[in-house]
Amino acid sequence: MKQRDLLYEGKAKSVYRTEKKGRLIVRFRDDITAFDGGKKDVLKDKGSYNARVSAFLFTYLEEHGVKTHFIGMLNDTTMVVRELAMIPLEVIVRNFAAGSIVRNYPFEEGQALKPPVIVIDFKDDKRHDPMLNDDLIFALKILTPSELKKVKAIALKINNLLIDLLALQDITLVDFKIEFGKQGSNIYLGDEISMDSMRLWDKKTGESLDKDVYRFNKGDVMATYDTVAYRITKLQSQR
Q1: How many CB atoms sit inside 10 A of residue 65's CB?
Q2: Do 89 and 203 lie in a common domain?
Q3: Minimal CB count within 10 Å: which of 23, 76, 101, 114?
Q4: pLDDT by residue (tens digit) across 107-145?
C-alpha cells in the first residue's frame, strides 16, 4: 500500500491517504506532548511502542466483538486503517479518580468509581476540549440519542475487556480515552489505545505506567513505555 497526501497531522500521529479507497495510513511519530501541548519533546522509538500496543489491543478487542478501524501494520510505526468520519468526541472511562477529575471535583486520588464514570469532551483544540453533557451532544447534532447510547455501551465493553486483560499482568486500568468514527451506519473504535491514552498503575507498587511519567517527571519515560509494551503484548502467548 502506497502513502499519498497528508490528510491530518495531530500531536503525535500523521494520517495519509492511500491509493485504495476507504483505506488510510497512520504513522505514529516519536513526538510526545502534555498539558494541551504546553510541554513537548521527541523521544526515540516512542511511536513504535504506541503503534505496537495499539495494534495488539485493537486485535484483542476485534476478537471480542468490538469493531475497530485497524486493518494491519506496515511496519513498527505505521498501520493501515479504515477511513472513518470521525466523531468529534473524546470518550473517557474512569475506574479510579485521578488527574482532572480530582482537580475539578471532590474526589480523592485513587478513589474507586463504581460504576465507572464516563466523561465526554468536545474534541476541539481551540476550545481546549470542553466537557459535554448529553443535551449538548444532541443540540450540536453530533450523535443521536441511540448513537450515544451505543457509544457508551461500546466504551464500557472495552473497559471490561481491558480491565481483564491488563489484570493478567498486575496492571490497574485507572482510566482511558477513546475516539469513535462512522463508516456508513456502523460505529468503529478509531484513533489509538496506548500508554498515551490510558492511565495505568502497577497493582503492586502503585507506580505510573503511562504518560504521567512524562507529564510529572516521574522517571525514565521510554524505559517505562518499553516495560509496559512488553507486559501488555506478551499476553498474546497466554490467550
Answers
A1: 9
A2: yes
A3: 114
A4: 999 999 999 999 999 999 899 999 999 999 999 999 999
